[in-house]
Amino acid sequence: QELSALSHQVVAAWAAVPFPAVRGHSLPDALCAHQDLPWKLLSSCREQKVSRCFAQSVVLRGICKESPISHPGEQPPSPLHACDTAEQVLQYHLHTLFPGAFSTAHVLEQPCVTLPPYPPIFSPLLTRQGFLTDHLSSRPAAAVESIPVLTSLQSSPVLHTLLRELCRDLQKLGTRRCAAFFAAGVEEENFHEALEELRALSQCYEMGFEADNSEDETDSD
Questions:
Q1: 109 with 164, same domain?
Q2: Which residues form the signal peptide (predicted)?
């Protein structure tokens, strides 16, 4: 429900496959090693340099929840190391990177299994459990049996560009080129109504800096 609030009915998918965690290091260590979350945009959107989202649901798999977060009696090197559980670590990190956004974090111990027929695409720097090592291994990459994975479904401003460009592509088609489509029973009036709804949906993901860019693009068309 939070992801679909304010007429946000579309989400973008992000993933880190595998999640770059070093063997023997804690989750706070892995997150502190990166300025941003080490995931890539999977949806066909133009990736923004500015990290913003309205709401997101994040799942991390393959990280042991009972792993020690910090050492007793020592000063935590970061606020992340002061958290008690892996869920708290991930939740705190999300709130830091995406202030004001609604974020849910879930950490599951079960990794993603990568046994055959999963393709042997992994670096020899990965252990059998998909964690990074500091030395090359002589074994083939196919020996990776499982990997930790970080995924997210985001209600994000990147969807504004995706939906706007989809709307433009549909407009360029023109109704005359879709005679067979309308002959199948689709009313032209319903087509234009759906087009307007798509345009309105794209505006739900628009933010201030994107509004300026869209005006510039409109002027150049």
A1: no
A2: none
Is 85 found in the same domain as 188?
Answer: no
Instruction: Please tell me the distance from the alpha carbon of residue 88 to that of residue 30, in angstroms, as a whole number.
Output: 14
Interval 97-141: pLDDT, tens? 999 889 999 999 999 999 989 888 888 888 899 998 866 655 554
In which domain, by residue range, is 164 found?
160-204
pLDDT bracket for residue 94 (50, 70, 90): very high
With a CB cutoff of 8 Å and minimum separation 6, the contacts of 147 are 17, 18, 19, 62, 111, 112, 114, 122, 126, 129, 130
Closest CA to 107 of 56, 60, 150: 60
| 37 part of a folded domain | yes
Residue 61: CB atoms within 10 Å: 19
User: What are the tokens at 61?
Assistant: 């798999």
Asked if 19 and 126 sit in the same domain, the reply is yes
Question: Domain count of the chain?
Answer: 2
Beta strands per DSSP E along the chain: 12-16, 40-41, 55-61, 102-108, 112-113, 146-147, 149-155
Q: Which of 157, 164, 163, 159 lies closest to 217 in space, CA to CA?
A: 164
Are 99 and 25 members of one domain?
yes
Number of helices and strands (H, E) in the chain?
Answer: 6, 7
| CA torsion angle 210 3 89 132 (round to 10) | -80
The CA distances from residue 211 to 6, 127, 161, in Å, are 18, 46, 10
44-92 pLDDT, tens digit per residue, is 776 665 568 889 999 999 987 544 445 556 778 889 988 888 999 999 9
